[in-house]
Amino acid sequence: MPQAADQVLAAQAVTGGPGAILAALRQARSTADAADATMINDGSRRATAPWRPWARNLLVYGPFAAAVLIVQIVLYLVAPSGSLPTYALLCGLSMPVLAFGLGWITIGFVYGPGKVDRTPIVGAIACLTPVLLTCMGVGLLAFFR
After folding, report:
1. Could you count the other beta carbons within 10 Å of the beta carbon of residue 41?
2. pLDDT band at residue 57, thresholds of 50, 70 and 90?
3. Which residues have CB under 8 Å from 79's CB, separation 6+?
C-alpha cells in the first residue's frame, strides 16, 4: 500500500490534466524499468553475461558422474574379491557411458529445444573421472597391502 505522502505526491502529479497524467505515467514506467534493471543486473546498467556453456553443462554432468563414483565405491565394498575384475569391467565401461547419455538428454531437456551446446568433451571428461578415481584408489589399496 502506498503511504500517505506517496498518495499526496501522486495526486499533485495528475492535477494538471492529460499532459501531466501522461508525464506521471512515463515517470512511473521509467522508475519501474530502473528497478527491474537493478534487480536483474545486480545494480549495474549493463547486462550480465550468461554462464558459459561448459560451466552450465558441468552442473548437469557433475551429479551423474558423482552417482557413478558412489555406485562404483559401493560395488567395490560389497563385491566378493574374486568377482572384482568382472564388476570393474562391466561398471567401469557402461556406467560412464550411461551417465554421459543421461547428461546429454538432460541438457537438451533443461536448456530448451533447438540447438544447444552440450559440450561433449567436458561431459566425457566429467563422466570418465570417476573411473579414473576408482582405478587410482584400487591401485593404491593394492600397492599398500
Report:
1. 12
2. very high
3. 87
Q: How many CB atoms lie within 10 A of CB 144?
A: 6
**Three-state DSSP class for residue 36:** helix
The answer to whether 134 and 69 have CB atoms below 8 angstroms apart is yes
Task: Kindly report, residue by residue over 66-80, the tens digit of the pLDDT.
Answer: 999 999 888 888 888
- The whole-model pTM stands at 0.61
The answer to whether residues 68 and 130 touch, using CB atoms and an 8 Å cutoff, is yes
Any residues with CB less than 8 A from the CB of 96 and at least 6 apart, and which? 65, 68, 127, 128, 130, 131
Instruction: Dump pLDDT digits (tens) for 2-39.
Output: 788 888 887 887 788 888 888 888 888 888 777 777 76
**Contact status, residue 48 vs residue 42, Cβ threshold 8 Å:** yes
Is the separation of the CB atoms in 68 and 96 below 8 Å? yes
Return mean pLDDT, the chain.
83
Is the alpha carbon torsion for 105, 106, 108, 112 positive or negative? Answer: positive
Instruction: Match 497524467 to its residue by C-alpha cell.
Output: 21
